[in-house]
Amino acid sequence: MSAEAVQWAWRVSCGRLSDKLVLLRLAWKADDGGVVRVDPALVSGVTGLSVARVEACLSSLERAGVIEARRWSDSGCWSARLLLGGAL
């Protein structure tokens, strides 16, 4: 993703530091359309957060209107899209 997405992620107000950390990881890995496949186990390994905490952060970011997210029941992974125009 472009530096724009990472800069946007830095500007977004998050209620918890863990939410900010996950959001920055999403922005770093997102494609040009702001879409990213999220494997909570991989994000856990990179951030030092538990898998449960990563999933809680994804849910929190979606409730806050920062991302659109969907969890895939077959793999446990998520598809997320950054909502670059919202939640600043």
- Beta-strand segment tally: 3
What global shape is seen? globular
Could you name the CATH homologous superfamily? Answer: Winged helix-like DNA-binding domain superfamily/Winged helix DNA-binding domain
Distance between the termini: 19 Å
Name the CATH class.
Mainly Alpha
Extract low-pLDDT stretches: none
Radius of gyration: 12 Å
If classified by CATH, what would the architecture be?
Orthogonal Bundle
Helix/strand/pairing category: alpha+beta
Q: Could you please say which CATH topology applies here? A: Arc Repressor Mutant, subunit A
Biggest pleated sheet: 3 strands, antiparallel
The number of helical runs is: 4
Let me know the average pLDDT: 93
Beta-strand percentage? 15-25%
- Reading side by side through the largest sheet, how are the strands ordered? 1-3-2
Number of domains: 1
Order of helices and strands: HHEHHEE
Helicity range: 40-55%
What's the quick description here?
The chain has 88 residues and is of the alpha+beta class.
Structure notes:
This protein is of the alpha+beta class. The chain has one domain: Orthogonal Bundle (Arc Repressor Mutant, subunit A). It is 49% helix and 16% strand. The chain contains four helices and three strands; from the N terminus they run ααβααββ. It has helices at residues 3-11, 17-29, 40-47, 51-63, and strands at 35-38, 67-71, 78-82. A three-stranded antiparallel sheet has the order 1-3-2. Strand 2 and strand 3 form a beta hairpin. Helix 3 (40-47) packs across helix 4. The relative contact order is 0.23. The mean pLDDT is 93.
